[in-house]
């Protein structure tokens, strides 16, 4: 069997893939099975799941932003625990590591980059939750940070679009897809790939990013093995 082009992957997924609000059982099973399929393809997999199916801190208008972000970080912990439980039920090997050690007795350990690297090399999937542990930082920033810390070969960001366009494809029918673009070009064109903190961290550490449609069949596996899907930023 050929080796992956990108042996170690950090995958950023939206919490809304688990449900429009809270967690829906059918979505949870599909979500977990998809991750397990990736793990079984000789790919070392780290995952950051957002918490948007529960709460988006930056969109909250009825509470202090710091509190809202704290709740958002706890939302990612709930998602991570739910997904890891289903993966174990399906026979997969998975560990949950959190920047916010809220539930140490519920299968959730404190983030440790040395242990994370060791577990990944042993074929254990790791779900990173709790964001960065600080308010005002998105799960995009958490994904970039964890990607750098675990020495991922690529950061994969799943979105509702086919990649990065020169303008919003939801608003402009003439929008053109970039198949490959550099970090400086993204900044110069003010393209909304991820928040600037996350993007700058990837740029500094030369961590390539590939943005792709989350509904693409087997996209993560195909990308890991070198197929050019979506948009590559490097």
Short summary:
This protein has helices at residues 25-39, 65-89, 113-121, 139-149, 183-188, 196-204, 219-224, and strands at 8-13, 44-49, 94-98, 108-110, 125-129, 154-159, 164-165, 177-178, 180-181, 209-213, 231-233.
**Low-confidence region ranges:** none
Integer-rounded radius of gyration = 17 Å
Number of helices: 7
Proportion of residues in helical segments: 25-40%
User: How much beta, percentage-wise?
Assistant: 15-25%
Work out the count of structural domains.
1
| Average pLDDT level | 91
Which H/E pattern describes the elements?
EHEHEEHEHEEEEHHEHE
CATH hierarchy class name: Alpha Beta
What's the count of strands? Answer: 11
Within CATH, the superfamily carries the name Acetylglutamate kinase-like
Strand order of the largest sheet: 4-3-5-2-1-6-10-11-9
Estimate the global geometry from the Cα principal axes. globular
CATH topology tier name: Carbamate kinase
Specify the CATH architecture. Answer: 3-Layer(aba) Sandwich
The end-to-end distance, rounded to whole angstroms, is 28 Å
Which sheet architecture does the biggest sheet show? 9 strands, mixed
Based on secondary structure, the structural category is alpha/beta
